Amino acid sequence: MGRRGGASGGPGGLSFSGRELRDLLVAWLALGVAFTFFLERELTRIVFLQFQGLSLSAAAGTFAVSLLTVGIGFLLHELAHKVVAVRFGQVAAFKADYKMLGFAVLGGLVGFLFAAPGAVVHRGRLTAKQHGLIAVAGPVTNLALAVAFLVPFVASLISGAGGFLWEVARMGLQINLLLAGFNMLPFGPLDGRTVREWSTPIFLVVAVPSILLGLGALFVL
């Protein structure tokens, strides 16, 4: 999710401040923890100091899967916004929303998950087309990642293989389709609204399949 506003740094090249790298790392880890709590319900026993029946190896595996799927999907989505913004001469940086990250972790604990970890903010003069291209870069990146995860997913289905790699492929495919579909909704600060304000035809070309695939991923995978 890209956002217009202030950012630190200078235009003309892709660079990362120490604060931005910290925000990216914290957001990546927090999302991994939030999804681990959400998917491993037994892990919530830790909060109440009840360790019976808790498999730490299963929790560690889920955390690793979350980092490689949710975390990577989120990071590359935001970096795609930044790369395109910088290409247009913008000052751009990712800024984590620590309140929303805390809410995501707490939500995962109670079985309700809504993740809005932050956004790339940028400043400078842009046309509507440039704003639209910056916005659409994130969901398109998630669609490309979904295709990348689809290959091992189909291979696992054909071979009947399971285990860690199967779970990474399945969840990577599902999460990236959900991220693309959700972010292309034309509401609020989501990317879809910016794309629609620039070009309705391009919005429809990207949003319709993204949203349909996201719904399919939610109910089928």
Automatic annotation (TrEMBL):
UniProt keyword annotations, A-Z: Hydrolase, Membrane, Metalloprotease, Protease, Transmembrane, Transmembrane helix
Tagged with keyword Cell inner membrane: no
The keyword tRNA-binding is assigned to this record: no
InterPro entries, per the entry: Metallopeptidase_M50B
Residue intervals passing through the bilayer: 21-39, 59-80, 101-120, 140-166, 202-220
A Gene Ontology molecular function term of the record: metallopeptidase activity
Protein's name according to its UniProt entry: Metalloprotease
Organism: Haloarcula salina
